[in-house]
Write a structure and sequence with these properties.
With 614 residues, the protein is of the alpha/beta class. It is 34% helix and 23% strand. The protein has 18 helices and 18 strands. It has helices at residues 5-12, 27-30, 32-35, 40-43, 48-58, 74-115, 131-138, 172-183, 233-244, 274-287, 309-320, 336-351, 360-379, 388-393, 416-427, 452-455, 457-472, 518-523, and strands at residues 17-20, 23-26, 126-127, 146-147, 187-192, 204-210, 219-223, 248-252, 302-307, 327-330, 400-405, 432-438, 494-503, 525-538, 543-556, 561-575, 580-595, 598-613. The radius of gyration is 38 Å and the shape is elongated. The two termini are 71 Å apart.
Length: 614
């Protein structure tokens, strides 16, 4: 059956031959006619004329012999060509197997972290820290843990290092956040995700309801990111900022996170079901079905804030629910395939030698399809069922504002994700308006993802206040800097006073007294009193200005001359997107000397600029 008519016909064609080294193996030399004589008519259903023609071609003894050096040795020629064919097939099979193995390895390593469920999602619900617990642990007694709730959350929040002053209990943001959480009401509520027609199951969710004094205040749903829950500092600080401006906050757990219910999906389903949790929380904030929030409110008074993965789901919800008035998105991925491609490129780049690492970006697309399918299989869901890009296309009217915030140096979710969101919003001006776009060079030590609201809390809060006041039509005068607590300590002036005593080295005297006597020491000593005041001001343009004023008063009892020196130093640091820090140091010194003959004043100003690249 292997030598059926189609193969024989192709072998007998003028171009029919096999390469054997530098020679050609003809069908005559291969002895095809002898291999397929008896059963052609029985094994094929072609008509007799075609059969006879094929037999004539394959048994044509007048065909030129093309096998130089092997004439008259058909068995040797056949052996050579078929061995070479087998080697080629074997090499191809090995290469194919290697490709399959590499694709599988890449898929497992990049897809599993993207969609895999983690125990850390359920952590952070209790607090077992503090001096009392440490004392109990040291005495080998049982350690009691307390459930975390808004009044005691600030004791357990794991803030990244580098943005908030330490110790944390002295930081103005932490202090004010603790006071506000302890002074306002709070409660945990239970709600359900919105039902879907596409087969996703509704899941019971838990949420913090964090109201303000005004029961009629607008409400904002605050969504956490991946690998966290509603007790994470990112959403708790966001909720605090909103409450400090008079907006109530509902902070839910996504399914499989915190104390929310478990979904049937095996992993992070991204575009398959998370947006249903957002819509369920928004429905709850609008309708108050259980009477836990005080009353039902108009849909136009309930907005959404999403951090990272929460922003991804929030944008989908905005596109599907036309009554959501606005969305604030911070450090969110826009296209999940982009995220997967970035992870593949990073992995392949780690395998390649240094000089060839840039090739990883070009190799990544070769592994995309297998990795994407494996990620969906691992999650047990269609990850691309919905996406922000698709939701924006379906958003329709009315035109609604969005805010886009992203750190310039974010290496978890690159800034280009928000740039794509901005581009997509500009492509559908009838549906969306990018009302606020904020790309600060935010970084807290090594942490650069979703940290802008603690990197510059005053500026961030002002933008939040202006945006949401415009959305809800509330009084924006509350957004003025002087009407809200300062969260960076900028208005606090620290005065440092130091006094030093220097003795003159002169050997002459203007008054006849004994050297080294008490009167001599009094007349020949110089006392310098220095007072330094330090003020730091940080503006929303990512420019930090530090002003240091030093007043030095020197009184010399030898000549009875009083001199006053006032020095003002101004340091300005400006961060740019290229990670270049430009520092400008300006020193202005005013010297005023008063003597018995009059007053002399001179001023010297020196300015220097230094650039430091990261």
């Amino acid at each position: 059956q292997l030598w059926g008519l189609p193969w024989a016909a192709r072998m007998a064609s003028p171009s029919s031959s096999l390469m054997c080294g530098s020679n050609m193996c003809s069908t005559e030399d291969l002895g095809c006619g002898e291999l397929q004589q008896p059963n052609w008519r029985e094994e094929t259903d072609v008509n007799s004329s075609t059969l006879e023609e094929a037999r004539a071609l394959t048994t044509n003894k007048e065909q030129p012999e093309k096998l130089t050096g092997l004439k008259g040795q058909p068995e040797q020629a056949s052996s050579c060509c078929w061995c070479l064919s087998c080697v080629c097939c074997l090499v191809a099979a090995l290469l194919l197997l290697l490709l399959v193995v590499v694709e599988a390895a890449v898929a497992v390593q990049v897809a599993s972290p993207l969609v895999g469920k983690r125990q850390s999602w359920r952590e952070g619900l209790v607090f077992c820290g503090g001096a009392e617990v440490e004392a109990q642990a040291s005495s080998n007694s049982s350690v009691a843990c307390n459930s975390l709730a808004p009044p005691n959350l600030t004791d357990a929040l794991a803030f990244p290092e580098g943005c908030l002053a330490t110790p944390l209990q002295d930081n103005p943001l932490v202090i004010d956040m603790a006071l506000l959480n302890q002074g306002l009401e709070w409660k945990m509520v239970n709600l359900s995700s919105r039902e879907s027609r596409d087969g996703q199951e509704a899941v019971q969710l838990t949420a913090w309801w964090l109201p303000v004094a005004d029961a009629r205040a607008p409400r904002i749903v605050v969504l956490h990111g991946e690998d966290s829950n509603f007790n994470d500092w990112t959403v708790q600080v966001m909720a605090y900022l909103l409450r400090s401006m008079g907006f109530a906050a509902l902070v839910p757990n996504f399914r499989d996170h915190g104390s929310s219910g478990t979904s049937p999906s095996a992993g992070v389903a991204w575009g398959w079901d998370y947006y249903l949790d957002v819509l369920g929380a928004w429905d709850y904030a609008v309708n108050d079905p259980h009477g836990q929030l005080g009353s039902k409110v108009d849909a136009s008074n309930v907005g959404v804030v999403g951090m990272s993965m929460g922003g991804f789901a929030a944008m989908i919800a905005l596109g599907l629910e036309p009554f959501i008035p606005a969305v604030w998105v911070d450090s969110a991925p826009f296209d999940l395939r982009n995220e997967l491609r970035r992870r593949i490129s990073s992995l392949i780049g780690s395998w390649l030698p240094g000089a060839t690492a840039p090739l990883a970006a070009y190799l990544a697309p070769l592994f995309m399809e297998v990795s994407w399918r494996y990620a969906g299989h691992s999650a047990g869901a269609d990850l691309g069922h919905m996406s922000p890009r698709e939701a924006i296309r379906e958003a329709g009217t009315p035109r609604r504002p969005i805010a886009i915030v992203h750190g310039l140096f974010d290496d978890i979710v690159p800034r280009r994700e928000s740039e794509e969101l901005l581009k997509a919003a500009d492509s559908y001006p009838e549906s969306l308006q990018a009302k606020e776009v904020y790309f600060p060079p935010s970084a807290c030590g090594d942490t650069v993802h979703q940290v802008a609201h603690i990197w510059a809390p005053n500026s961030y809060r002002h933008k939040l206040c202006t945006f949401w006041s415009g959305v809800f039509g509330t009084d924006s005068s509350a957004c003025a800097a002087g009407s809200l607590p300062d969260l960076e300590g900028n208005t606090t002036t620290t005065t440092l006073t130091s006094t030093s005593t220097r003795s003159t080295t002169t050997t002459s005297t203007t008054i006849g007294v004994e050297r080294h006597s008490p009167l001599w020491d009094l007349l020949h000593s110089t006392t310098t009193s220095t007072t330094t005041s330090f003020t730091k001001t940080q503006t929303s343009t990512t420019s930090t200005t530090e002003t240091r004023t030093t007043t030095e008063t020197t009184t010399s009892t030898t000549t009875f001359t009083t001199s006053t020196f006032t020095t003002t130093e101004t340091h300005t640091a400006t961060s740019t997107s290229s990670k270049t820090l430009t520092a400008t140091h300006t020193t202005a010194t005013t010297s005023t000397a008063t003597t018995s003959t009059g007053t002399t004043t001179s001023t010297t100003k020196t300015t220097s600029t230094e650039k430091v690249s990261d």
